[in-house]
Amino acid sequence: MTILTEIQDPRVKDVTVIRVEVSGDMQTAKVYVSVMGDDTKQNLCMKGLKSCAGFLQSKIAKRIDSRFVPHLNFILDQGVKNQLLVSKMLDEELHPKNNNPSEPAPPAVHTLHQEE
Predict the structure, then answer these.
(1) How far, in Å, CA of 70 to CA of 25, rounded?
(2) What's 9's DSSP letter?
(3) Residue 80: which H helix or E strand, with range?
(4) Which of 2, 30, 36, 74 has the highest count of CB atoms within 10 angstroms of its CB?
């Protein structure tokens, strides 16, 4: 929630935290994030998150009762972006655009009839 509501850096937007992996000794945490947008926007957002890491660590320190506060390492997770790309490709394959408006589009589902 802090990323969404408290970070004032204009580079940090359209971010979703996918998962967090904390080391056993609580020294480091890998924060996997997804950022919507092109590569330039993603790179800017990652730089913004890295510059806000200290602020986020101070927020974590107030919420957990631990001797250590993990050092945050942000990692761009391309899984969501790849899922959207595959979904788009499948949709285009299953529902091709009709290039000739005078011809009807081919049916999406073919049925087989048994001969009697």
Answers:
(1) 9
(2) -
(3) helix 79-94
(4) 74
Task: Specify the pTM.
Answer: 0.68
Among 80, 101, 69, residue whose Cα is nearest residue 32: 80
CB 5 within 8 A of CB 17: no
As a whole number of angstroms, the distance between CA 98 and CA 108 comes to: 12
Structural domains of the chain, with CATH? 2-94 (3.30.300.20)
pLDDT of residue 10: 94
Residue 36 tokens read as 């919507």
**CB-based contact 103:59 (threshold 8 Å):** no
| Distance, CA of 32 to CA of 19 (rounded, Å) | 5
Q: How far apart are CA 23 and CA 26, in angstroms?
A: 5
Exposed/middle/buried for residue 9 (C-beta within 10 Å: 0-12, 13-18, 19+): middle
pLDDT means per 10 residues, the chain with 116 residues, are 91 93 94 91 96 94 89 90 82 74 53 49
pLDDT at residue number 103: 54
